[in-house]
Amino acid sequence: MQVKKYLSLMAVGLLLACNSANKSTATKDSSAGSAADRTKVVNPAFSDVKLQTIYTAYIKLKDQLVASNYNTVKPAATALSTSLKGFAGCESAAAIAHKIAEATDIKAQRAAFTDLNVELIPVFKHASLTSGTVYLQHCPMANNGDGGDWLASEKNIRNPYYGDEMMECGRVAEEIKAK
């Protein structure tokens, strides 16, 4: 009799363990789908072709800062500076992008990137977006705890202020959507 009880309890335990494993797998599968959604990149489109060029150059610069490669930041900043020249109201942003290209180390490039964002984020907040979403992201630890903002084409946080030191430090502060 005791053996039957013991075997019955083992069978119930095994059944519960199998059900628990299935639930765990289901949870992992559903979270994998949402992770894919966060990393999905849909490049936003602007009605102004010049602004589209500026945004594309900005994202390339941001991505090079994320990669923490001082040498590839320089040409990306130069390309952004060139695209900003002649765009009304962005003269200061063009000068800052040039400063990033001329910086002597990644730390100086990232410090100037903060100033660049102060100039460019308002431009993109008021731009005519025809499709997609621009994500305004914020890292509270950047700039010695003063925080720093940047723009991205995806929800996934890829921090240009710290790169691989703290790649996911930050949050989406705002979504700028097509109207």
What does this structure look like?
The chain contains five helices and five strands; from the N terminus they run H-E-H-H-H-H-E-E-E-E. It has 179 residues and is of the alpha+beta class. It has helices at 2-39, 49-66, 70-84, 91-102, 106-125, and strands spanning 45-46, 129-131, 133-139, 148-152, 171-177. The protein is 58% helix and 13% strand. Helix 3 packs antiparallel against helix 4 and helix 4 runs antiparallel to helix 5 (106-125). It has two domains: 1-39; 45-177, no CATH class. The strands form two sheets. The protein has a three-stranded antiparallel sheet.
Layout of helices and strands, plus pairs?
Layout: H1 2-39, E1 45-46, H2 49-66, H3 70-84, H4 91-102, H5 106-125, E2 129-131, E3 133-139, E4 148-152, E5 171-177
Antiparallel strand pairs: 1-2, 3-4, 3-5
Helix pairs in contact: 2-3, 3-4, 4-5
Summarize the entry for a quick read.
The chain is an alpha+beta fold.
Based on helices, strands and strand pairing, what is the structural class? Answer: alpha+beta
The backbone outline, from C-alpha atoms, is: globular
Strand portion: 5-15%
Strand order of the largest sheet: 4-3-5
Average pLDDT, all residues: 83
Order of helices and strands: HEHHHHEEEE
Radius of gyration: 24 Å
Work out the oligomeric state of the chains in this entry.
single chain
Total individual domains: 2
**Total of DSSP H or I helical runs spanning 4+ residues:** 5
Low-confidence stretches: 5-38
Q: What share of the residues lie within helices?
A: 55-70%
Total number of strands:
5
- Which sheet architecture does the biggest sheet show? 3 strands, antiparallel
End-to-end gap: 73 Å
